[in-house]
């Protein structure tokens, strides 16, 4: 309902508090929306409701215990969090990771990417009202959780990697199950596309909504799919290969218009690319140990390092300082992709309608556990 | 007999609700009384065997126009309670004069129409070759009253265009 | 005395109860059908295949605590759900469920207009619920709802004019009889009108993909955010009762009401052993299924897109349809 801006009427702006308890702010994000009718004039993004002080806490944990804390940041993509942290410490300590371990890490990370994107697709579609996609996506995510459970016993917070490699080799027959899952997933992606990609309502709800130019996206420090949606070629897996990504052949999908629909297409394409990577990794899975030569007591020499990986949400970086004396980091800092992408929410939202706000929260794919840490 | 009882009960209801419309402090309550008033008038039409008018009364007045009133009231005054007028007696003289004029007019109509027997235009009703409430009304509107009907439509069209012009944001 | 008062009262009692029971089972049907669409099972615990869930659900809602927010307007807050439910039930008075006199309460010569008029009263329930809650989300939702209902009412009413032109009567029974005389269902002569009424009906009953007023992802439940318990369940009942109304109206107007397919084709007369009400309820069931299916499939429109669809697409098509129908009627 819009009112004419006539001096006869009192056109106060309506301030609405969206969240922290709101079904589609994906956790405890709070948006203070200033509305003119249903149009958003301004928004304050308030966060910090799940701040647990993981970074500070880590300075009092030893190097292995921190892995467990990283699980709790982006809790829907715990394996990539583990991977980023372990690789950072390995870089700091100059530890060589066995090739088999790097391959398995890649498989885990890509499975995690699919799981995270499934959750994103489901909730994003749900926000726009397509509730069947939500359950379809969760159905496939469930299969990945089963695979993880078989590998490390946990379904959400895996604690699945160690500095120097992996705690466990894969169980017998696990690789066949992953292969079977890839076949299933490949068949299911068209199913999502059938429900959404060419759906008129979906197109109207996402095309031209939340457009951000490449320049602005870089300026805001966006990363991951929101950045690639604006046609900026940036993928840590390609630019600074880690784990075993340099040995695989895959493409980085790019958008053209930088709108919600492009970001949606990119993530759907990433499903396919992830399947491609997993298949290559399974085909070329080398024999050998999964744990490198690591001292019993982890105690890196004094120094600092930064290492980033491409988590499902974007560039996940760890900055670690060691003073060389203690068995815990002197300083531990995370560059979480969700936090950086959340910076993009305000410019995206302003000028759109309330209904678009939920679509835009969905499209930048934030996990509040990672934003607040 | 039953009809007379019905008529007077309804009249009391209608008048009572009309008083409530004016006296209610809360604008939204007042509008709600107005809706009830219209519904009672619709029932009155049914008693007079004018079902079509009754339904149109509900559809247009209760279901359409008053809904718009309600939206406007909600948009303009979200705070609920209407603030009191500064001086309620300021305009009371004009109001009294207006009310007196309307009363005189009504009395005049009453006297005039009771004097002549042609209060009901029965000649047209007999002339119409169709049966039933709706059909008869349609017949009359498109034959005897065609010009007033068309003039009214043009008037509504003008009002609509005017409203659109006023409400447009950018010209 | 018996004919004018007792029998109608009995019919009304049966009808109201029947509708309410039908509504609870429609809710169950919706849960089941959507569950199957989403590769789930749906309710399975209460009774065989969860059938008794239809009874348990309302009991749960009635037994829940009924909260009135402290800042709410108490009278309006209580009145709103009643205003929402009553019109939805009243409309059934003129719906002919079968060919026999037993299957309808009354037949008035402005039946179709009566339905439009009474359903338009239902808007008040939604507006007042939003206003009386004294809360921002419900207010936004109720503004959306009222704008939506009024616009789509215009589209639907415009469309119905062409059906009335085809049938030559406003009586619900008259419309079905007109189809019997014509020998075909009006769907075959008014397919455009059918689609328009179906879309408009979805929008008027706040069903997906037009469920903006209660979009829980945006407005946290919309106009009934502050409602709980019995009063919430009245909104719920009203929504599903309206769904039944729309299905019934569409069946009467376009799908021959209680008539069998091709009522004048003698070759199909072996179908006559099926009672008329079975045809009616069968068709209604089909439309309910369609509504649920649509809800499981489509995303939600945005509010401004919905208004654009209503005003710039549906209403012009409806007016065009009236013109075409009138011209064809005059020429034939």
UniProtKB/TrEMBL annotation, chain A:
The residue ranges of the NADH-quinone oxidoreductase subunit D domain are 127-300
Q: Which UniProt keywords apply?
A: NAD, Translocase, Transport
One of the entry's Gene Ontology molecular-function terms is: NAD binding
The record's listing under SUPFAM superfamilies reads: HydB/Nqo4-like (SSF56762)
InterPro entries, alphabetized: NADH_Q_OxRdtase_suD (IPR001135), NADH_UbQ_OxRdtase_49kDa_CS (IPR014029), NDH1_su_D/H (IPR022885), NiFe-Hase_large (IPR029014)
Q: Which PANTHER family match?
A: NADH DEHYDROGENASE [UBIQUINONE] IRON-SULFUR PROTEIN 2, MITOCHONDRIAL, NADH-UBIQUINONE OXIDOREDUCTASE 49 KDA SUBUNIT
Family classification? Belongs to the complex I 49 kDa subunit family.
Q: What is this protein called?
A: NADH-quinone oxidoreductase subunit D domain-containing protein
Q: Which species does this protein come from?
A: marine metagenome
UniProtKB/TrEMBL annotation, chain B:
Enumerate the UniProt keywords alphabetically: Membrane, Transmembrane, Transmembrane helix
- Signal peptide region: none
Record-linked InterPro entries: NADH_UbQ/plastoQ_OxRdtase_su6, Nuo/plastoQ_OxRdtase_6_NuoJ
Where would you find the membrane-spanning parts of this chain?
6-24, 31-48, 54-78, 90-112, 145-167
Is Transmembrane among the key words of this record? yes
User: Under the GO molecular function aspect, what terms does this record hold?
Assistant: NADH dehydrogenase (ubiquinone) activity
Kindly give the Pfam families that the UniProt entry links to this protein: Oxidored_q3
The record's PANTHER family line, in alphabetical order, gives: NADH-UBIQUINONE OXIDOREDUCTASE CHAIN 6
The protein's name in its UniProt record = NADH-quinone oxidoreductase subunit J
Q: Which organism does this record belong to?
A: marine metagenome
